[in-house]
Amino acid sequence: VQLQESGPGLVKPSQTLSLTCTVSGDSITTNYYDWIWIRQPPGKGLEWMGTIAYSGRTYYSPSLKSRTSISRDTSKNQFTLQLSSVTPEDTAVYYCRGINGDMEYWGKGTLVTVSS
């Protein structure tokens, strides 16, 4: 299974950050997969942002819930992150990740910089 993040590398403050993770090698609707967005700001640790399960159910970090939306396009085998009202503090490397039992897959990550 391979995951690939895509989206703009530069977003202006107050705009919405939108990233897509394209999954190959398995279907995002295959039983028991969790599809996850994680980010790592410069010099800081990994932060879980949210999850969309194989069923389509979503879960969000309480600290980001008001600004985060995760959706999916099953026809394209993709899931998408939207983060609204971004500030420079949202500058980070954003990763998508897939987990199913003991199996775990990561995208390579994409740097998103929030700057005017």
Give a short summary of the structure:
The protein is mainly β. The chain has no helices and eleven strands.
| Structural class computed from helices and strand pairing | mainly beta
Order of helices and strands: EEEEEEEEEEE
Q: What is the residue-mean pLDDT, rounded to a whole number?
A: 97
Largest sheet: 7 strands, mixed
Query: What percent of residues are in strands?
Result: over 45%
Give the termini distance in whole angstroms.
36 Å
The proportion of residues forming helix, as a percent range, comes to under 10%
Total beta strands: 11
Individual helix count? 0
Q: Rounded to an integer, what's the Rg over CA atoms?
A: 13 Å
Q: List unreliable stretches of 5+ residues.
A: none
Topology:
Layout: E1 2-6, E2 10-11, E3 17-24, E4 34-40, E5 47-53, E6 58-60, E7 68-73, E8 78-83, E9 92-100, E10 103-106, E11 110-114
Parallel strand pairs: 2-11
Antiparallel strand pairs: 1-3, 3-8, 4-5, 4-9, 5-6, 7-8, 9-10, 9-11
